[in-house]
């Protein structure tokens, strides 16, 4: 800890700071940590993406690329420069408490599998948890995500809990990252987020 700017004491050696509140868990803690992390990444030659501020990019002089994506306290390091990736891990470990979990297997509800043909991503566990949450674990599968020539509107049906409906649609939107085939159906049900009805929830 450091004495805050503007606080002047003649004999600082005999003074101590009294901690009235834990630093971890404060509202400004994540912002302060990310600010420090950003400075560390910039000092290592990385540029912060303007499209996504949690993405840091570094191009080497030999045309290789290294990427780091951070979400809260989880990080993914990817790229074709193996030397730079190892150096980045070592340098970050000197400034932050870190643990290398090896190859990426699971990140934000997305499962990652490796094969000779390449990388396969899916959200199988995410879908199963979603079906369990909505009580549809034993439902029958359908070849199409939504009925053809549907006419979904504001039919006379009972309203459903708005927050629960919005949360469910939000999860479906996230699922469409790996399941683009449901994107249209999700866009239809998301039109009724401000006044959801039973007909919208059961579609």
From TrEMBL:
InterPro entries xrefs: DNA/RNA_pol_sf, RVT_2
Domain of life: Eukaryota
Annotated SUPFAM superfamilies: DNA/RNA polymerases (SSF56672)
First and last residue of the signal peptide: none
Residue ranges occupied by any Reverse transcriptase Ty1/copia-type domain in the UniProt entry: 2-147
Annotated protein name in UniProt: Reverse transcriptase Ty1/copia-type domain-containing protein
UniProt organism field: Vigna mungo (Black gram)
Lineage: Eukaryota, Viridiplantae, Streptophyta, Embryophyta, Tracheophyta
